């Protein structure tokens, strides 16, 4: 398992729970199950001698019950612009094979239903964030602000994808996904966003 790798960048997610998703506090979903789309944009990344700057990764996740009590089904999507070396590195990192934070989530996963190379669009524009995964998925969220115009954040959530960073709370404008027998079309639900740092340990 390589330990000389590190990624930094930004991520955001949208799910089927009401704002703010109780799963991050280890509570039950608001609707009995949870459907999630996640996108990562790697600003700086190195896996041994493989440069990963500028690449995108996405994940579709379905939890049929309480996230700590059932096994998740997940599909991983890799940036089709990546070389074979880069795709191999991203696969090792985002399936937890290379250790780091993603390895902490592996015990919750019951099935990886697919790993696909697709065009991935990841956009940040002010309060808005948008992710498009080929023809199979798309989500857009808008940050929630308090009465002073500052972003609403959660510090140190027990379950999250950006350890060490405050997580911004958002609301989805859309959440659409259809692949591997899963299909969702949702809006007005939960979103989170944050910087992230993952590294071998």
The total of helices stands at: 2
Number of strands: 13
Q: What share of residues are in beta strands?
A: over 45%
CATH fold assignment: Acetoacetate decarboxylase-like
Which class best fits the helix and strand makeup?
Answer: mainly beta
Q: Overall pLDDT, averaged?
A: 90
- What would you report as the Rg, rounded to the nearest angstrom? 16 Å
The percentage helix is: under 10%
Named at the architecture level, the CATH assignment is: Beta Barrel
Q: How many domains, as an integer? A: 1
Per the principal axes of the C-alpha atoms, what is the gross shape?
globular
Q: How many strands, what sense, and barrel or not for the largest sheet?
A: 13 strands, mixed
CATH class: Mainly Beta
Q: Uncertain runs with pLDDT below 50, 5 residues or more?
A: none
Distance between the termini: 9 Å
Order of helices and strands: EEEEEHHEEEEEEEE
Essential attributes:
201 residues, mainly beta, Acetoacetate decarboxylase-like, 13-stranded mixed beta sheet, 13 strands, 8% helix
Put the structure in a nutshell.
The protein has 201 residues and is mostly beta strands. It contains two helices and 13 strands. Strands 1, 2, 3, 4, 5, 6, 7, 8, 9, 10, 11, 12 and 13 form a 13-stranded mixed beta sheet that branches.
Layout of secondary structure:
Elements: E1 5-15, E2 34-47, E3 50-51, E4 56-63, E5 72-79, H1 84-94, H2 101-105, E6 109-118, E7 120-125, E8 128-133, E9 137-143, E10 153-154, E11 167-179, E12 182-186, E13 190-199
Parallel strand pairs: 5-6
Antiparallel strand pairs: 1-2, 1-13, 2-3, 2-4, 4-5, 7-8, 8-9, 9-11, 10-11, 11-12, 11-13
């Amino acid at each position: 398992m390589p330990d000389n790798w590190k990624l930094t960048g930004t991520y955001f997610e949208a799910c089927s729970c009401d704002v703010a998703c109780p799963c991050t506090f280890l509570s039950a979903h608001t609707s009995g199950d949870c459907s999630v789309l996640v996108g990562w944009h790697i600003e700086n990344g190195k896996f041994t001698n493989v440069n990963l700057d500028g690449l995108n990764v996405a994940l579709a996740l379905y939890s049929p019950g309480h996230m700590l009590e059932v096994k998740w089904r997940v599909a991983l999507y890799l940036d089709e612009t990546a070389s074979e070396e880069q795709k191999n590195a991203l696969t090792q990192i985002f399936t937890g094979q290379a250790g780091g934070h993603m390895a902490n989530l592996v015990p919750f996963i019951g099935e990886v239903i697919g790993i696909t190379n697709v065009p991935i669009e990841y956009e940040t524009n002010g309060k808005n964030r948008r992710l498009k995964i080929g023809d199979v998925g798309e989500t857009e969220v808008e940050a929630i602000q308090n009465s002073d115009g500052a972003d609403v954040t959660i510090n140190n959530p027990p379950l999250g994808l950006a350890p060490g960073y405050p997580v911004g709370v958002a609301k989805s404008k859309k959440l659409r996904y259809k692949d591997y027998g899963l299909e969702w079309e949702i809006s007005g639900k939960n979103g989170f966003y944050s910087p992230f740092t993952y590294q071998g340990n």
